[in-house]
Queue: 4 jobs
Job 1
Amino acid sequence: MTDEIIIGLFTARSETAIAETQRLYGRYFYSIAHGIVWNDSDAEEVVNDTYLHAWNTIPPAHPDSLKAFLGRVTRQLAIKRLEHNTAKKRGEGQYLSVIDELAECLSGDSGDEIPDQIALREVMNRFLHTLPPDVRGVFIRRYWHMQSIEEIALSCRMSESRVKSQLMRTRKKLKTYLMEEGFSV
């Protein structure tokens, strides 16, 4: 079943839309959520909240890619769940350590303004397209999917030290790229 058909089911308010979304993308959403919250029940709850969000926003939203749209929703919901859990001293998963890794590349002084966020997103997309596909994949696995070094090494058939050094080199390239694009680092 295609995204367009599933979106049509959401528009028609058919519960089949949720079942089909779960069938196609459930594992993907779960892996995003679990990579951030590192807790099975919290990850499942985040995924269920993702389906609820889809139900409540489609329509009027009509995403070009249902997977990307709901993947981003899952990530945002998982981060909120992690912040909630961290406030209650329940643990923080990989999220905070991953953010610390990127802190040297990204400054926080312009992050509050929407135009700056949009510009940063565009620059990040351009940067990612400059990377070879295998390097880009490792970077995205770490900083979007919040996978651990060990998980990346296993899935990419690399040593953990190679993953770490590749990520370090990529972060340095990102820092230089952002500076060249006029972002304060």
Job 2
Amino acid sequence: MKVIASTLRKGNVVDMDGRLYVVLTAQNIHPGKGTPVTQLDMRRISDGVKVSERYRTTEQVERAFVEDREYTFLYEDGEGFHFMNPETYEQVAVPLDIIGDQKAYLQEGMPVMLSVHNGLPIAIELPARVTLEITETEPVVKGQTASSSYKPAMLSNGLRTLVPPHIQAGTRVVIMTEDGSYVERAKD
């Protein structure tokens, strides 16, 4: 659907020449003399290229309809990553290039938010925290204080993180999916 350029906000998805862009910043500029303009900084969803565009505030821009729905992760195979809509039981396969580095945190049965455009998934948002097990870490060094130093540890998903000295192999910990940092010991 076409909308006036001045109504676009951060997070909106626009369709330019058949390609989808997500708006990073939208700024309306009213010079003292001349036509007011809308400055848009956008990122192309397909490959991450950043683009800057300037429109007259009254110009029409094609806004893409994107639906955010909750899906449950099922499994990964040669086709990609398979998710199921918990209400309709409809399954969708998401290619690796959309998942990216986040694939290490995907766990069977994990609820995720998928952004869908014309029936095709274009983006994924994982939960902020996941619980993983420490597979290996260095032994505790006597006299090391708990607050000041962290030691490297290997997680069950193959990634490395830093944990406090009292954490040992076999301990379940909560990790931030955004940057892979240690939050706390798991309560379960």
Job 3
Amino acid sequence: MDYKDQLRKVLSSETIKTRVCELGEQISKDYEGRPLVIIGILNGAFIFMADLIRHIKNPLQIDFVRLASYGSQAKSSGHISFTKDIEIDIKDKDVLVVEDIVDTGYTLKYLKEVLNLHNPASIRICCLIDKKERRKVSVEVDYVGFDIPSGFLVGYGLDFNENYRGLPGVYHLNPVYKPEGFMPSDR
């Protein structure tokens, strides 16, 4: 990690904590009396998901998926494959997918189609950050932490070359070193 990279705070840890609590309360209310399977998308969503489930009052099970999108660093090719699949049986269960950022929509559209093959009772999506202006495919996000329209974001699980995930807030990153294909508006 190059510590000369420029970071500008977008969301403080306090702001995130407050919003995650609100999301947990809303999800608890919407699923009142019903168990829930929460599926996190690795690696970016793990911190958000860990904090979120602490605020959900319903009985729940958790699992994770990891997906790979093949293409250049600058844009997704739209070809997605699993590198880690779910292990919990979701047939006839309510499922909540937790994602860090929704931008093009390719990953979530694909994941939702695959999860629907398991015949869950329902599938909803919760994301920390929504970037609607970058959508390439239609994906409905049911629970949104924050709408942030532009900039490459790091912190609170979000990374740049596997760095910055541990920052307690969310920051716009302007890296000193820009690998080939890097575009500051990618996230």
Job 4
Amino acid sequence: MAIATYTKSGTKATTAAKLDASVFGVVPSNHELLKQVYDAYLANGRENLAVTKTRGLVSGGGKKPWKQKGTGRARFGSSRNPIWRGGGIAFGPTGLENYSKQVNVKAKRLAIRQALSLSADSGKLAVIESLPVTGRTADLASLLAKVGANRRTLIVVDTKSDELIRAAGNLQQVKLASAKYLNVYDLLNADTVLISTAAITIVNEWLGDK
């Protein structure tokens, strides 16, 4: 299958790049798999920051509120029990929870192939021969404008050089990714996926039929 190809100056190339159908032409029949891998990416990146105090960690409460018998009220041994205001939390997060989700390698690669195929089928995918290595944000922004990448853009390269990282880091809606570390989350969220010819070779070797 062929797809729109641009030169490093942003003009249309004379010959369109040919993509491997086993990677970019997969029929996405299993949408549940895409959702599973998408959710796993978010879960594995989740920071476990919420921590609450149990009754043993809340300060105070060492004195018995009132005597055990004779008051007519219910018996309590501490004012820091969970059912009192100012008391501890009975079943709150401890900071030790594990929210990660496991997806096997075969399923993950199939989901990435489906996401790449969806991008190619919907016209979001474009190929560029090479990217500017000046390190200037203005040069990269000008190139993206020429190829029509005006919204959320995922740039896939074979190697993330320091110049490209510096140039893309100043563009708010642009994300730079290495071909070996593609994921379903970035592919599905991008409005434009711009992939270099060198990165296509790596993706084909990684995900294509051996």
